[in-house]
Structure to design on (372 residues):
């Protein structure tokens, strides 16, 4: 095997493949058909990433993943040549050469077969980016919530994530079918590949996800635990009073409130009034009261609640730039706040559970809840 490429392409190639697996010790380097590929296969993810390259001699070799990743990050700018001569892989760069102990390419498991039928994928970077931050963390002790659930429904592909305190959903048009739950690592890799290489194909089964783009093939095992019925959960929450406000102004107001609410639980107040949405925060360091004017007249009683600042700020910032307005719905201080937005074909909804502060009562808000 002998091939040449440039430093930046090689680094991105190795980094993308190495990110697919933290467990498997080897990466497979393949030189074939005017391209250089890096392949990693673990129990969770299989990744085959390609870049254009000059190929003088075709072949494949396995190299220790961690060592290759560390070395590639420190290579100087300029042309890079890779040549396999048993038992080493020689990496020549301007001014020097590095030799890594190599192994037979069979040290890396066979790449899984792809299904014959695949469907044009939506923009996975956009879709997954709207919900990724709402996944449960490893320390939460709920393995079924530690990933993003993908589900097809009525001609759309939905991405769903929840940690029990917030529920994030986003959807785009999609002609395929299937459902599975992918890990955060898989989601991050799919976002990276989708961002730099449009026009992918996807297939979703209960056990595995398959994704193919011009420069990459990704396959990932699904999380085996069943995901909660988020549709029933969404329908059980009342929407209450709805207000549409400019997205940028709402984001700025919440960001300022988050800067004030520096103490646990970092809670801010959100109230829907006849004039618009009032965002408030207080702490020993200061206080804030900011009105975001409504774009349309508001129908329904005034409502308010407390929420954790980051739970509202993250989804507002994740929205694509073309989103000019958002809708917030409130049914009372003990009901979830609902944030909804649209951008072209993208539909996004975030359900944020309220934070009930000890000793704080809703006053008029609670009285109106009892009368509804």
């Amino acid at each position: 095997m002998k091939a040449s490429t440039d430093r930046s392409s090689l680094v991105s190639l190795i980094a993308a493949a190495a990110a697919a697996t933290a467990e498997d010790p080897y990466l497979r380097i393949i030189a074939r058909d005017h391209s250089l590929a890096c392949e990693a296969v673990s129990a969770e993810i299989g990744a085959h990433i390609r870049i254009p390259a000059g190929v003088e001699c075709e072949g494949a070799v396995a190299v220790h993943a961690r060592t290759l990743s560390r070395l590639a990050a420190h290579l100087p700018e300029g042309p890079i040549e890779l040549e396999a001569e048993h038992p080493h892989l020689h990496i020549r760069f301007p001014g020097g050469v590095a030799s890594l102990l190599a192994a037979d390419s069979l040290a890396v498991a066979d790449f899984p077969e792809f299904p014959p039928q695949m469907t044009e994928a939506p923009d996975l970077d956009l879709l997954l980016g709207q919900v990724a931050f709402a996944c449960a963390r490893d320390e939460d002790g709920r393995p079924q919530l530690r990933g993003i659930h993908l589900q097809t429904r009525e001609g759309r592909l939905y991405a769903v994530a929840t940690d029990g305190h917030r529920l994030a959903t986003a959807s785009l048009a999609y002609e395929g079918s299937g459902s599975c739950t992918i890990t955060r690592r898989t989601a991050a890799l799919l976002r990276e590949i989708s961002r730099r290489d449009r026009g992918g194909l996807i297939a979703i089964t209960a056990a595995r996800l398959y994704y193919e783009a011009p420069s990459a093939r990704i396959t990932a095992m699904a999380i085996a635990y069943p995901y909660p019925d988020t549709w029933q959960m969404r329908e059980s929450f009342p929407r209450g009073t709805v207000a549409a406000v400019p997205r940028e102004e709402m984001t700025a107001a919440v960001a300022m409130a988050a800067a004030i609410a520096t103490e646990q639980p970092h809670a801010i107040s959100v109230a829907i009034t006849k004039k618009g949405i009032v965002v408030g925060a207080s702490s020993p360091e200061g206080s804030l009261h900011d009105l975001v004017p409504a774009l349309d007249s508001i129908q329904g009683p005034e409502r308010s609640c407390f929420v954790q600042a980051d739970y509202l700020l993250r989804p507002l910032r994740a929205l694509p730039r073309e989103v000019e307005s958002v809708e917030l719905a409130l049914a009372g201080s003990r009901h979830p706040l609902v944030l909804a937005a649209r951008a072209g074909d993208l539909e996004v909804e975030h359900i944020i559970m309220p934070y009930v502060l000890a000793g704080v009562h809703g006053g008029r808000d609670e009285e109106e809840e009892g009368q509804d």
Remarks:
- The chain has three domains: 2-107, 119-232, 238-371.
